[in-house]
Design brief:
Length: 71
């Protein structure tokens, strides 16, 4: 059976603000939420959503939602 799986990752170093990544996987559909207070990181993440969709698609996973926001 295909259950619902979730995961959360918090990235932080001394030079960048923290970034949180939340992933929800239901069967072969994924939702990814990125949050960071750094505007350059948000811009880069938003611009990389198509690439993420392509990479997940190669593994048979459909990216149904990507959100990028502030924490």
């Amino acid at each position: 059976t295909h259950g619902v799986h979730t995961g959360e990752l918090r990235l932080h170093d001394d030079t960048l603000d923290a970034m949180n990544i939340r992933v929800r996987l239901a069967g072969s559909e994924a939702q990814v939420n990125f949050t960071t207070d750094q505007s350059q990181q948000r811009d880069w993440l938003a611009g990389s959503a198509d690439r993420l969709q392509d990479l997940l698609g190669q593994s048979g996973i459909t990216l149904t939602q990507v959100s990028v926001g502030t924490s």
